């Protein structure tokens, strides 16, 4: 039987955990500026991937806040092991592990714990010409909060092959740049710097796997908008 592209990528995908060194000037800058953090993470993407290198590399990331026991931690998922020598000097201590065992365990009916920091948002028609729009059809992207954000995640989780059992929501800090840049943040992308529509919410809880193929795709490609800004990486662990 021929493997699908997602099945093939599941055999090579990795997760890199970087415990950030808060003494590093670059780290301190990245922790306060999402655009700078995006550019640092993109250093791990191989050269020569064309107009959409992040997508082609399958790069997704999430910044976990510091706790009493651990420093801020950067989680980076990619289709291939990243070249960590490309990170700035003294950026942090890193370890990479293969995700193939996780993908092999995506069985229907299996209970899992999940976490995702997502850009819960919706597209609305602009009411007048004074409102910013995100495309030529006169529509704009708005951030969702509270019950609306929860309903968004419930729909997206169902589409991704998960039946949610519990969900805790936490507004996630969005680190805005000091000065709004006037250039795209990634070759081939025309989106301006992130605005209010890129507000982030963290969802944690328990779920049951219902459709492994859909879940595999969601794990590899991410969920929702805002992936260049640290949204969309879905993490699973045994319940």
Features:
Alpha-Beta Plaits, alpha+beta, globular, 239 residues
Structure described in brief:
The protein has a single domain, classed as Crispr-associated protein, domain 2 (Alpha-Beta Plaits, 2-Layer Sandwich). It is built from 7 helices and 11 strands. 23% of the residues lie in helices and 28% in strands.
| CA-based gyration radius | 18 Å
Shape descriptor: globular
Strand content: 25-35%
Helix run count: 7
CATH superfamily: Crispr-associated protein, domain 2
Strand element count: 11
* CA-CA gap between termini: 31 Å
Q: Structural class, please?
A: alpha+beta
CATH topology: Alpha-Beta Plaits
CATH class: Alpha Beta
Low-confidence stretches: 180-193
Oligomer state equals single chain
Helix-strand layout with pairing:
Blueprint (H helix, E strand, L loop, with lengths): L4 H6 L3 E7 L4 H6 L3 H9 L10 H5 L2 E5 L8 E6 L13 E7 L1 H5 L6 E8 L2 E5 L13 E5 L2 H14 L2 E3 L3 E5 L27 E10 L2 H10 L12 E5 L1
Antiparallel strand pairs: 1-3, 1-4, 2-3, 5-10, 5-11, 6-7, 8-10, 9-10
